[in-house]
Amino acid sequence: MTRLSAAFHHVWPIFKREFAGYFATPLAYVFIVIFLFTMGAFTFYVGHFYDNGIADLSVFFGYHPWLYLFLVPAISMRLWADERRSGTMELLLTLPVPLWATVVGKYLAAWAFTGIALALTFPIWLTVNFLGQPDNGVILASYIGSFLVAGGYLAIGACISATTNNQVIAFVVSVVVCFLFTVSGSPLVLDVFRAWAPDALTEAVASFSFVTHFTAITQGVLDLRDLVFFFSLIALFLTANIVVVDLKKGG
Amino acid sequence: MIEIEGLTKRFGPMTAVASLSLHVAKGEVLGFLGPNGAGKSTTMKMITGFLAPDAGTVTVCGHDIEADTTKAQALIGYLPEGAPAYGDMTARQFLSFIAEVRGFKGAEAKARVAAVVEKTELVPVLEQPIETLSKGFKRRVGLAQAILHDPPVLIMDEPTDGLDPNQKHAVRGLIRDMAAEKAIIVSTHLLEEVEAICTRAVIIDRGAIVADGTPAELLARSRYHNAVTLTLATAEAEGASAKLKTLPMVAQVERKALGDAIRLTAFPKSGALLIEAVSALAARENWTVKELYAEPGRLDEVFRAITTSDAARAKAARK
User: Fold this and answer.
1) Chain B residues touching A98 at Cβ < 8 A
2) What percent of chain B has pLDDT over 70?
3) Which of B84, B87, B102 lies at the smallest CB-CB distance from A91?
4) What is the pTM of this model?
């Protein structure tokens, strides 16, 4: 317990500063407005939410991984690249905080921020409850799944942001890597592997797909395997993030 | 309090710091000098645990910086080069963040921030975002951040860079006031700063120590140490120059024209004290002396004599 409180004591100030940092600039507001606008546009105009005549939010959630693909790297790109460019990295890493706590604190702040943006989509939940009787258990599971997808993208983006001091490079590379994780379950990618690779490898590649795991959750089943997938992916990339920051301090 | 042994850092083929050893005790203010690229900042980055050395150790108050990083860092106040800070935070928010990271809570954190704001005279800009502050205030925010927890070890990379003379004076006063209780390392390009605040000066060149002593000891290495300069009317100067050369302790006399006057500098043989002999001679000969003073020595001359310029280094590298 004391170890846990010591860990919290290290992570909390980092988290707080980073989180407040989003709202110190217009970044947070611009992001939230664009996030809500694109979510709405896709759900109502591209997904024909009303015309479907079904009281659920599967159309809404179906677009999440694709929107996150661009919106989440926009959040994560500055996470480390900005610290490196402005020289605050040297300040941050010479404060008496273990490196892992700094990485985790910054990451959790970014994740909490996307969580707030996601939570602000609640009017659509109100709408669907007003129009019919949806299964709110499924909707809750879908929100949790969506939050995990965002967390996965963020961990990838944070790690990539640590490799450069250029935010544009961080953004573009993050989008590409996140894209690979998004489509790895689709025929586009799997056909490439099926041609030559053993089935086990093809299945392994498919199992890295965010969409596959997310779709499973949006069916209303919070399977432990899907949760383990997201949490271990996040842990993996945060570990990589720690290693990258440590290795690249010199330049 | 700071023990550095055999510290080495390489960047690719270049050796930035080459087996540097240094001990700094409580009460010492060590001026860290050297040309740009000599390895000053790299050394400071290793002392504070930002960069990992390729070889050697740094111990801060008994804590090894690599094995015991967090404990050692808690005892260090560090002002990195350029005094980086989060530009979108106000000075107060930034200092409160530092206080919290350093483990101060509630009333104590507030008191710490208030004390340090008072010391560094940040009151008028406390509620402004740091990115809108002038260079002088930014530097003082960095300084405030470094001394907030009253650390026993203070490492400052060019603390007065970009400050005007008044601000420099204030910062130097601040450093002097803290000196007795701390071990301080200050890197600087300003040689007058070394004379103003340092109890010890270390000059490094190409990653290695080339001089280590009190500022007075370094000054004694200057050709100008104990030399005497006097200014006379041009008419008198010719004869005076010849007379000065007859003094037994004078090795050499240099002259420089100043309009209708000439400034003569008499250099002593092996650091002997000349001023008494020269002033006696001037009285005897009844010269109308406009200026007469003994030179303490010139640090910049010592600095140039024992370090290599970056141009010379580039030339050496090409060969």
Assistant:
1) 69-70
2) 96
3) B84
4) 0.86
